[in-house]
Amino acid sequence: MSLLTDILKHNQNFVKSREYEAYRTTKFPEKKMVVVSCMDTRLTELLPKAMNLANGDAKIVKTAGAVITHPFGSVMRSILVAIYELNAREVLIIGHHDCGMTGLKSENIIDKAKARGIKDEALVNVDVDIPLWLSGFSSVEESVQNSVDVVRNHPLLPEGIPVHGLVVDPSTGELEVLIDGYLSM
Ligand SMILES: [Zn+2]
User: Fold this and answer.
1) Are strands 90-96 and 33-37 parallel, antiparallel or unpaired?
2) Residue 58: what are its φ and ψ, rounded to 5°?
3) What is the CATH architecture of 26-102+137-184?
4) Separation CA 83–CA 32 (nearest Å)
5) What is the pLDDT of residues 35-46, one digit of tens each?
6) pTM of model > 0.90
7) Regions of the chain with pLDDT less than 70
8) Residue 9 Cα to ligand 1 middle (Å)
């Protein structure tokens, strides 16, 4: 059975047995917060549980490394939509230890892409420095600080929104506060 068939089979039963009823909520985050975190599989359930977040409590934006690369990219846009349209009042950027983006070298990805048939021409782009774009960060603490700065200094961020920076341990769920957003409001 293919992955998709498997998913759809489960889905039919899920809907039929009304399992969704336990998850009913609204699109507005109950706890008025937006979280930016990493796509790491260890965090899928662990992070919300470790933060006491139930379905409906928070807007959660996932991206490799919890990195906000560009002030006018889709992650920053998501944060602004969460604030202006969905009543989020606080922002939490949560990186994690042992992240795949720590020390990620773009050369490795580029070599693998070439081995899978990607041509040299595809690796040159006038708008984007592809090797830089595919690179990770040297330290998660530095990366979280950078992302917090991008949000905090954004020209479209309204006054009075605390922007916190944290790091989570992907095995225990323990959170460490790097930047307490209340202190710099
Ligand atoms: Zn990660």
Assistant:
1) parallel
2) -145, 155
3) 3-Layer(aba) Sandwich (3.40)
4) 9
5) 999 999 999 999
6) yes
7) none
8) 30
